Amino acid sequence: PVIFLGPEASEVAQVIRxxxxxxxxxxxxxxxxxxxxxxxxxDVPGREAAGRRGRAAVESEDVRAVAERFAAALAGHRG
Length: 79
What we know:
Layout: E1 2-4, H1 11-19, E2 22-24, H2 30-42, H3 44-59, H4 61-75
Parallel strand pairs: 1-2
């Protein structure tokens, strides 16, 4: 599974929620992140299922398109 530290309204957060492959922590501090990691560590079946869903999502064309747009946006901000 993935743990995303970023805005809830972002495309990345939307994909994570749609595919149910991880968690979105928009206002995470170190303690919140640690709790989320511990939660995933304790839930082996949930973690493995989320990982499978994440892999399936990454292999889908929709997520590839999102990743390509994200990479293009990052490349446009290089100095």
